[in-house]
Structure formats: structure tokens, C-alpha cells
Amino acid sequence: MHKKTKILLCSVGISLMLGGCSGMNSANNNQESEKVKETQAAPSEESLISVQDYTGEGYALPYGKETDKIADESLDEIEEAAIEFFKEKYKTDVTVHNVVGAKDGATVFVESKGEPHFYTYAVVPIDELEKKVMTEKIWADEFQVENAIKGGLYHMIFNEEFQQLDDYLETLAAEGQVTGKTKDALQNVGGHGYMTPYYFIALTSKEEAIKPVYDLYISNPDESTENLRNAYEEGSFNPENFKINIQLFMADKQAEPSEEIFNQITKELEEMDSIPKGTYSFSLNDNFIDKQSSEGAKDNSLKRGFPDYIIKE
User: Fold this and answer.
1) Backbone dihedral angles phi then psi of residue 31, each to the nearest 5 degrees
2) Sorting pLDDT into bands at 50, 70 and 90, what band is 293?
3) Which among 70, 13, 15 is positioned nearest to 40, based on CA atoms?
4) Cα gap 266→260, rounded to integer Å
5) What b/e sequence results for 45-60 when a residue is b if at least 16 CB atoms lie within 10 Å of its CB, and e otherwise?
6) Which of 92, 230, 250, 295 has the greatest count of CB atoms below 10 A from its CB?
7) CA nearest to 195, candidates 260, 233, 230, 147
8) pLDDT band at 58 (very low <50, low <70, confident <90, very high)
9) What is the pTM for the complete model shown?
């Protein structure tokens, strides 16, 4: 496990912070996202770091200064509790990457081992007065964790289609003009389901096609990919309920987001027919990320999204 990262952030709840700022996990999250932005100060020069250098260092949650110190003294206990929690409740082996103090608790960032692959988090309550870590009361946002697993299952059963998308984005990055987040950043402060350096998957609560796949996985985690794929209900799929959020950064520290590159990628995404079905958003940011929130979106970012998503049906 990496050493814990330290910092301060806007005063919003953990589930909002991790589920609302960067994605759309439910129909209400667009509104929640706006509320978060209102309470969050614009990134200052001091809080910005080149995306290639960002590992999650500098990230934190509201009112976490004291709980951070208490959690620091019980890292082994917290790690053990988180591993046991995900194994028992979600039949999934996880690696604990980071623990960050928050109001009345500590957020534990984990990554699944093997497939389905995803990042998520749990919360261990902390009694500040007693300076006590209550690992027996560990909990997680069920909607968030289930969606993380469902996103990983989507990637698993539609591996060929996702490989097309991954190859395309990796080729773009290899050309040297754009880049994505580091793997360390995803591990230490990701927590948002199936993620790569270039995109993350978000499902709304109305996404039904993957539900029987999830139920089969939870009942038998060793089920074959073929059987999981066969459980998928194609007829229930609605692209509006399955979102793939692509976020790229300029590789050059001095570069503003390029209109030419943005338009080229947008056009190529529109024309592709071999990538996964769903609703795509795309944003191109400059080279810097706010280390306090791990967000790259700024006033100068170029965006294609609501209400003009790229839809693949």
C-alpha cells in the first residue's frame, strides 16, 4: 500500500466527492455535480500539477485532518478490514492502495485483483474523541460498488469492442500530443469503477441489461466469461444509461487545449462503429490537474457532452 496522501478539499460528502464530481452515477448526479462545483474553489496555481507527475499526492477529503492522523496509526488494521469486507460482501479480492482521512472516518481506495477489473472505495468510521478506528463498522456506498463491478463486467464481456477503443486512445497518446492520467493516480484516488488513464465507465440506476450478469457473478465469482456474456440482456440495453467518459490532456506543459486535435478526435469517435455501444462524452484539458480534487476540467477545457453526446447504438 502506498503511503497515505495528505491535503484539504471542499466541504462536500464522501459519496458526492467520489461519485458526483467526475461522473454520472445516477439521474441526479448532474445536479449534484453542479452543487459540488459551487462549493469548490477554482484551482489555484499552487494546487496545479502536470498530469504526468500526478500520483494522487495532495488529494484529501473535507474535515479529514485529525482522522487522517488516527487512520495513519491503524493502516494494517484498516487494510485487513477492507480486504475482508469486499471478499465477504462482493466476492471480490482487492488490493488497498490508499487511505485518506475524511469527516468522521477514513476513505479506503481499493482495486480489484483480476477480472472484473475496477476501482472503488469503502469507509471506516473513526471516533475522533476516543481516537478509535471502528473497522467492524466498515461500509461502502452500495450503488457505487455495484456500478463499479458492473462496469468491470461490461469491459470483460465486451472485451473486443473495448480493445478497439483502448487501442485507439493508446495510439493517440503514443503520437505524443495528448496523454492521460497516471496509473498511480487511478490507484490512489480513482475510486470510480472501471477506469483507464483515458476514460471511465458510469452507469445510471436504470441500466438493466447488465443486471443478470452482475447477479450471476455475485452468485458464482468463478463463472466463465462466456456464461456471463450469455446472461447479458441485449434487448434491455439503452445507450443513455451507459456512459463512457473520455478525458485527455495536452502532453506539452505549455500547450492550451488544441481545437484541431479536439475536432479530429471528436470526428474519429463519431465515425467509429467497432467501439462499445453507449453514450460518449469527451473533454480535452491542458496539461495540469488539480491535486486537491484530482480533476483536470477547467474553464479552458474543450468539451463534447450534455446535451450533445456522441451516441453509439
Assistant:
1) -65, -40
2) confident
3) 13
4) 10
5) eebbbebeebbbbbbb
6) 92
7) 147
8) confident
9) 0.85
